[in-house]
Amino acid sequence: MTCLHKYVHTACALACAGAFALSAHAQTLSSTEQRIAAEVKAHAPEALKLLEQAVNINSGTMNHAGVRQTGQLFMREFAALGFETRWLDLPAEVNRAGHLLATRAGTQGKRLLLLGHLDTVFEKDSPVQKWEWRGKRVRGQGVNDMKGGDVVVVEALRALHKVGALDNTTITIMFTGDEEEAGNPKSISRRDMIEAAKRSDIALSFEGTVTDKDGHATGTIGRRSSSMWDLHVTGRQGHSSGIFRNASYGAIFEAARILDTFRREVPEADLSFNPGLIVGGTETTFDEANARATAFGKTNVIANTATVAGDLRYLTYEQRDRVHAKMKAIVAQHLPGTDATITFRDSYPPMEPTEGNHRLLAVYSQASQDAGLGPVTAVPPGQRGAGDIQFVAPYVDSLDGLGASGGGAHSPNEELDPASIGRAATRTAILIYRLTR
C-alpha cells in the first residue's frame, strides 16, 4: 500500500531519530549548516514521493522513452532550483536514450560535477515489481541502483537552495541514460561527461552507499576497470587415437592448459579475470556481438579450434600492463601441435585511489561526523565494479558511493532503507556547502 500517511510516518520517524544525534553535535556545524540539515529533514516526505515517481517509471537501458521520461522528472526538479537544463541526444547508431545535463555558473569555491544515472537493468517486460513497501523498507526497479542516489542529489541541492547557498556556485549535474550498459563507442556516449569533468575541479557520484561492519557509511575512492580478453586456439586435426603420440594435443587441451595456468599463476590483489564463454571442436562459430557460440565435433577427432571470451578487472594501468604481459607469456607456451593468441580490449578505465581522492573522502567524513552521522571510511577498491565516475576520475579528484543505502541491486529483491536518503542528503549538502565556500 502506498499513501501519504506512509510518507509522513516514515519522515517523522527519520526526523525524530536524527534529532538527538544532530543536537549532540550541533556545535560542530555552523548556523547555516544547521539550517541546511533542518531543510533536509523537513522535506523527507516529498523526497519519498519523488523517489516513488521515479521508481514507477520503467527506465531499462533499452527503454529509451522510459529513460527520457525519468529524465524529464528530474529536469523539472533541477530547473526549480535555478539550474539550466537540457537533454543531450546521442547519435542513432549509439542506440541509447541520451543524458540529462543541468548547469549553473558562478565564481565561488570549487567547480563540482555531480553524477547519477537514470537507467536500470530492468527492461520494459521485466516481471520485477514497481514501488512496494516491505515493512520499513521499499522495493522497486532501480530503487537502490540508483534512483535513490538521484533523489539524494535533488534533496541536497534543494536544502542548499532554501538557505541561499547555491548562489554564485558552479555545479554541473549529469544523469546518464545508459550507465548499466554504456553505448558504443564510449568515445561518443561519454564525451559530454568527460568534457564536463575537464571544466570541473571535483566529481561526486551517487551510486549506493555501502555500510561497514560498524554500520557507518563508506565512500569509494577507487574502482576497478572493466575490460575483455579473447583467446583463440588452434590444433592439428586428426584421429583421436593419435593424440599425444603424433605431436598434436588439440585445441581443447591447449585452451584448458592456458586457463588453468591463468588460475594458478595470474591472481593478485585487486585483480579478477573470468572466462565467461568457451567453445571448441572441429567446426565452431562465435557471435561476439550477441555472446553466442555453436560447435560441432566428434569424440574420435582431435579438435582443431577453441575460443574463450572473458573479462579482466584491474585497479591501475601498471597492474593491467603487468598482467597482460604475464597472460601473453602463458599463452605463448604452446603444447605440441597447437597455436594460440590472446587479445585485450579496454572498456571502462580504472578509478585509481589517488591522494586527491583520499583527501576528498576526509572532507566528506568530517562533514558526516559534524552532522552526527559518524565517520565515513573507504570501501576497499577491489570490492567495487565499474561505474560512470571512472570516465572522469583521470581528470579530477573523485568520490563515489554517496547515494542511499539498500541491497539486492539488479535482482527482484532490490530494496532501500528510506531513512538513508536523509542521511546521505545531509552529508552531501554539508560537503557541497564546504567545497563551494
Automatic annotation (TrEMBL):
InterPro entries: ArgE/DapE_CS (IPR001261), Bact_exopeptidase_dim_dom (IPR036264), Peptidase_M20 (IPR002933), Peptidase_M20_dimer (IPR011650), Peptidase_M20A (IPR050072). PROSITE patterns: ARGE_DAPE_CPG2_1. The keyword Zinc applies. Its cofactor is Zn(2+). It comes from the Bacteria. It holds the Pfam family M20_dimer. Residues 1-26 form the signal peptide. Gene3D superfamilies: 3.30.70.360, Zn peptidases (3.40.630.10). Residues 221-337 form the Peptidase M20 dimerisation domain. GO terms for molecular function: hydrolase activity; metal ion binding. Keywords: Hydrolase, Metal-binding, Signal, Zinc. PANTHER family: ACETYLORNITHINE DEACETYLASE, ARGE_DAPE-RELATED DEACYLASE. This is M20 family peptidase.
